[in-house]
Amino acid sequence: MLKELEFPFDNDEIMRSKRKLLRILKEREGGIPLRIAVLGGSTTSDIVKVMELFLRDRGIIPTFYESEYAQYQSDALFGNPELDAFKPEIAFIHTTSRNIEELPEINEDPELINSKLERESARFEAIWKALSERYGCIIIQNNFELPSERLMGNREASYGRIDFISRLNTRIYEYARNHESFYVNDLNYLAARYGLERWHEERHWHLYKYAMSVSAIPDVAHSVASIICSVMGRNKKVLALDLDNTLWGGVIGDDGISGIEIGSETSEGQSFLALQKYIKRMKDLGILLTVCSKNDMENALEGLNHQDGALKPSDFICIKANWDEKWRNLEETARELNLLPESIVFVDDNPAEREIVRVYLPEVTVLDFDNPEECLRVLDGCGLFEVTTLSEDDSKRGEMYLANAQREEQSKRFESYDDFLESLKMRAEIGDFEPVHIPRITQLTNKSNQFNVTTKRYTLAEMEEVAANTDYVRLCGRLTDKFGDNGIVSVVIGKRDNAVLHLDLWLMSCRVLKRGMEFAMLNALVAKCRELGIREIFGYYFPTKKNAMVKDLFAEFGFTKTSENEGNSVWKLNVETFNPIDTKIQIGE
Amino acid sequence: MSKEQIMERLTEIFRDVFDDESIEISDSTTADDIEAWDSLEHITLISAVEKAFKMRFTMREVSGMKNVGEMAEILLERGK
Fold first, then answer.
1. CA A351 and chain centroid, separation
2. pLDDT per residue over A564-585, tens digit each?
3. What pLDDT band is residue A113 in, cutting at 50, 70 and 90?
4. What are the angstrom distances between the C-alpha of A109 and each of A115, A155, A159, A169, A270?
5. B49 min Cα distance to partner chain A (Å)
6. Average pLDDT, whole number, for chain A?
7. Quick one: pLDDT band at residue A589, thresholds 50, 70, 90?
8. CATH 3.40.50.1110 given to domain A3-231
């Protein structure tokens, strides 16, 4: 990540050097293209420019449509040829309290105020419905921030405009709870965090029609970019934590168990405890915790078992406590979890250790902080773990990886790998996309990089369309074994052209590598093709920096290569002569 | 701060904002002389100058400035 864009960033520095930053980011290769329409109720120009910086820094290459000044409503309700041709995948509606058309006046009848509220919320609801019907896009809507003035003083909170704005916000949240692909950008929180007085820079409204201080723009851009990164599967997955002076005060190897600061006895201990408690809650979100500490294992475990600490050894998916270089440990952690180093966020109080990791393993994100309070604030504000949807699989992820570690352990005890697979008592459910699974299927599709032949990405709306269209053959697979349920781990999509099927997507979670699941999916696909009278399947491999592991997948499947061009290869399978491949997976409920 | 010092710091800001190390400015420099200097970048420029000199232009000043020289004059005046 670019140093200038790491949270907490210097807003003014970003504003001043945004041209240079964009030039540097444009030199990077690769990234996921994404079309974003920004429909503003005020000036959006610099918000878009800074948003591009944050998105590019996280591997998304955006193109933007920006509505003419304050044309959010007419663009959304009626579209226009340019916007129609643009086909937004995401629409960000940048409205603020300045765009509320009917605010309450003094001494108005409560009934009248209620009807104003109804009209205002209906106006926005119409905008959201029109956008999702016309473009099927993801919608990001600002809530309304507190205004700069309060005519009646404190009474505004219960009777006046502040009350009105709070009630209007509640309507937005209700809509968000009842509609998928709709996300709220919490502008109200951002304004409060920034400081309302500084946020409402009236000059910038009167001069440029920016609804907030120009200096606050990076906060808004970062927040929206975090939502987008999360929706596009760019969230980080692992928090790798140092121990001494990071999770507790002092050095366990020197100070001993009674010498370290953790718990409610001292103010320093409390501060570390607050951080541990926060991290424990991150784990509940499905974020994987690991330890990366220069320590003897025995001491590390003793510290984590401190009776006043909140984090225990069992909260960590893997504990690296040794005297090796930290970047090597992080690399190994990634390998053991079958994840890429770019999924890891490294937390260490020692600036020298941070710098070494930055240099030797630049894919890892490194957080900067000086003390546990600041560490908590950076974790909270960095947006690297932004939660947009919380699926059951997310909160169980830690358990799944733990089960994986147990499997790994067991595999060492068997004569042959087949014996081990047999012992897992694997069962798979393989079938068409069920509506309830589409969010998970989309999430998995957008974050799978390694076992993924085409790396094609889908928005939720596109995935819903695939699910509803009879031209597509779809399979998703769930794998369970004696250690637990891995959830949905594989997705295949093919587009049908009479008796031929073209595979748009074949991917699998690396959690279930070397289990034979890909063969079970293939067997199911061929069976389905036979049912449908499809005689040939074409597979496509498009190389990326990350998907070399599936270069020969179609060859292993028994496809023959029909052409190859600059690494892109096309493969063909004859459905009639295909013999199912043996697996150790039982198919069915 | 002297006029020279002000012009020096302004040059730095111009180079950052327009991402062009070759920019040289003088009193008579206007938006017409720098290709990237449009009304939108003007906002960035004004804000960057305000932050660097820890001051604020009035709205009248923002809309009234004709060239770099006038901007420097205001900064010189405020610095007294």
1. 27
2. 998 999 999 999 999 999 999 9
3. very high
4. 10, 16, 11, 21, 51
5. 9
6. 93
7. low
8. yes
Q: Which of A88, A63, A59 is nearest to A76 (CA)?
A: A88
Q: What is the mean pLDDT of residues A143-165?
A: 95
For residue A392, list its beta bridge partners.
none
The domains of chain B, with CATH numbers, are 3-79 (1.10.1200.10)
Tell me the two tokens of residue A56: 């590019």
Decide whether A3-231 matches A238-381 in CATH topology. Answer: yes
CA distances from A571 to A539, A562, A576 (A): 5, 5, 16
Distance from the first to the final alpha carbon of chain B: 8
Closest CA to A121 of A174, A200, A52, A84: A174
For A508-531, the pLDDT digits (tens) are 998 888 899 999 999 999 999 999
Alpha-carbon distance values, A548 to A232, A449, A453, A493 (Å): 22, 10, 9, 20
Instruction: List chain A domain ranges.
Output: 3-231, 238-381, 412-587
Best mutation target, B47, B57, B60, B62, to test chain A (most A CBs within 10 A): B47
From B18, B43, B62, residue closest to A19, measured CB to CB: B18
pLDDT computed for residue A30 by the predictor: 85
Taking the CA of residue B54 and the nearest CA in chain A, the distance in Å comes to: 12
Nearest CA-CA distance, residue B18 and chain A, Å: 7
Are the CB atoms for A189 and A18 separated by under 8 Å?
no
Dist CA A266 CA A93 (whole Å): 47
- B48 contact residues in A (CB cutoff 8 A): 12, 15-16
> What is the phi-psi region of residue A70: left when phi exceeds 0, alpha when psi lies from -120 to 50, beta otherwise?
left
List the CATH code of the domain at A238-381. Answer: 3.40.50.1000
The verdict on a CB contact (< 8 Å) between B51 and A16 is: yes
Q: Which tokens hold the place of A305?
A: 């078992």
Q: Tell me which architecture the domain covering A412-587 has in CATH.
A: 3-Layer(aba) Sandwich (3.40)
- Model pTM score: 0.80
- Those residues whose C-beta lies under 8 Å from the C-beta of residue A574, and which sit 6 or more positions away, are A535, A536
**A300 contact B CB<8A:** no
Q: Mind spelling out the 3-state secondary structure of A393-430?
A: HHHCHHHHHHHHHHHHHHHCCCCCHHHHHHHCCEEEEE
Could you give the CA distance from residue A67 to residue A84 in angstroms, rounded to a whole number? 12
- Taken in order A540, A545, A547, A553, the sign of the CA dihedral is positive
User: Which of A50-54, A185-189, A356-360 is predicted with the least confidence, judged by mean pLDDT?
Assistant: A356-360
ipTM: 0.93
